[in-house]
Each structure stands twice: as C-alpha cells, then as structure tokens.
Amino acid sequence: METRLKHWLPGHLPGFGVAGVAAFIGFAISWQWTSISPLTASLLVGVALGNTAQLPTRCDLGLKFSAREVLRTGIVLLGLQLSFRQVADLGGRGIIAVIIVATTTFFGTQFIARKLGVSPGLGLLTATGYSICGVSAISAMVGATDGTEEDATYAIALVTIFGSISIFVLPVLGHFFQLGDVRFGMWAGSAVHDVAQVVATSSAYSHESLSPAVVVKLTRVLLLAPVVATVAFMYRHRQIATSKTASPAPLPLFIVLFLAMVAIRSTGTLSDGTLSFFQHLEKICLALALVGLGAGVRFRKIRALGPRPVVLGVLSWLLVMTIGFVSVHLIEIPN
C-alpha cells in the first residue's frame, strides 16, 4: 500500500493541488456573492484555467482524478442528505407527482434534443440535470457514462442559468395563480433544479413552502440512483455490442454506495454535527471534481455547438415547469 502511494503521489499531486486551490477560490467567490453556488464557481474557475492558463502536462493526472474518482466520492456522500423516511412522509400521491415530473422531463428533454439536432451526450446530461438535481445529477451521469467535459459544462450552465431564473419567476407565477403554500412548495421542489435554488425559490414565496419543497426535491434526488444505474447499464451493453471484449458491470459501485449512505441516514443514528460535516465534505469533493471537469473544457469546441443548446435549455425549462404545475394540480394536496 505504501509503495503504491509513493508511485501515485508524484503523478497526481500537482494536478490535485491545482484543483484544491481552484476549489478554494470557488468557495471564496461563493462567500463573497452568496447567490453563486460554490460548485458553479469552482466549475467556472476550472474553465478559466483550462482556457487562459497553460497548465503543465504533469497536472493532467491529478485533474482527471478529481473529475472522476473524487466526483464519485462526492456523489456517494450526497446520499447522507436523504432518508427513506422523508420519502415516505411525502405520501403516495406526492411520490407519483415527483415520478411523473422526473420521467416526463428526462425523456421529453432528450426528445427535444434529438429534434433540435443536439448531440445525444448533451441531451442526456441536460435531461438528467433538469429532471433530478442539477449539477450533482449531471456529475453523476458523467461519471457513469464517460461523458465529455464540454457536454457536462454546457449542461451545467443551462441548469444553473434557468434554475436561477426560476428563483424570481416561480414566486411571481405562484402568487398570480394563487397557489397555496404546500402546493407551491411541491411545485418548486419538482420544477427547480439544484437544492439551493429550491430553497431560495420556496423561501421567496413563503416560509411555509420551504418544508414541502425540500422534501419533494430530495425525493427527486433519490431517483438519481435508478436513473444513473439504468443508463450506465445500457451504456455498458452498447460498448460490448461494438467491442465484444468485456462484460457489463451490473451497477456502478458509487451508486451502490450512494444507496448505502441513504440507508445509513435512514437509521437516524448520525448526529446533526456528523451530517453537517459530511455535507461540507460532499461539497468540497464535488467542487474539486468540477474544477477537473472545467479544466478540460475548450471554448472553441463549445462555440461550434451554436445556439441550439440554448433553445434546448429554454424548452426543457418550460417543460419541467409545466409538467410540475399540472401534476400538483391533478393530485389533491391540502393547502
């Protein structure tokens, strides 16, 4: 073990150190401007490094390690934010609404992407981010399917932009349609992408909307495991069909561990302090990973995509808002 570590450190430490410094800058930006997520800021710092700085090649291994292995660690720790009890408290009707929104958005976004001529990879990552939990879901899908840095960056940009717009638009629409606190909270939880954006959106409407919004949102996060596992399994089978050299992994290990963390959280044995510690650790891991992803992005490749991904973002945003709005009205919810 010690020998392997000695061989590993010289190759990975320079790039991992760069990722660490860049992630710290990302957190500092978030502390200064609280409306900016530290994950989004870390991604932007990574993109800036990749396009403006001539990073030495000895940094490549560490940055790639951050973008893959550290990413998977962050997704595993994300499971400690969830418990099966939270999902059960939502009730059968609420769970049905969440599944309808997530499923329709996931497949609908990919359908729109095909019609617009957007690449399947970008369509898949955008669909995952919009339907489940924004940046974290996109990161998990990249890790499971070996997605490209450019597709991941564009998808993250779309969910960040339109999730931020939702913070201002949804409360206005909620008051216009005179939605109750619980109903609006469920709408926000089903239609907005990242957890922080859901908290901001529901809080802007009313304090009473926050709890149902977070529960619905975390239920969507729980769908991360089956969705990523299914897509990863199909991806492996397609690889085998073309290469005929390997056998498919039944389930990505980090998804298995993600579910294990949910089970541990569900036991109720972890203290609030422990959960808070691991939540901070999860954010650090994901920030390091997004620096690694961002550093591999090249603007010239993104410019070649043209305006179609932006159109995809707009149409997908309208889709998830509409399906979420309809679903919470079709199901009887106390106001």
What does this structure look like?
The protein contains 15 helices and no strands. The chain is mainly α and about 325 residues long. It has one domain. Helix 1 (about 1-30) packs across helix 2, helix 3 (about 60-80) crosses helix 6 (about 120-145) and helix 6 (about 120-145) crosses helix 15 (about 310-330). The chain is globular and about 60 Å long.
Summarize this, please?
Helix 6 (120-145) packs across helix 10 (210-222). It contains 15 helices and no strands. With 335 residues, it is an all-alpha fold.
Helix-strand blueprint:
Layout: H1 2-32, H2 38-52, H3 60-78, H4 84-90, H5 92-116, H6 120-145, H7 149-176, H8 181-191, H9 195-205, H10 210-222, H11 224-243, H12 253-266, H13 272-295, H14 299-303, H15 308-330
Overall number of strands:
0
How helix-rich are the residues, as a percent range? over 70%
* Count of structural domains: 1
**Content of β-strand:** under 5%
* Spatial separation of the terminal alpha carbons: 58 Å
Mean pLDDT: 80
Query: What is the molecular shape?
Result: globular
Q: Helical region count?
A: 15
**Structural class by helix and strand composition:** mainly alpha
- Along the chain, the helix and strand elements come as HHHHHHHHHHHHHHH
Cα Rg? 20 Å
Q: Quick one: biggest sheet? A: none
Given as residue ranges, the uncertain stretches (5+ residues, pLDDT < 50) are 244-250
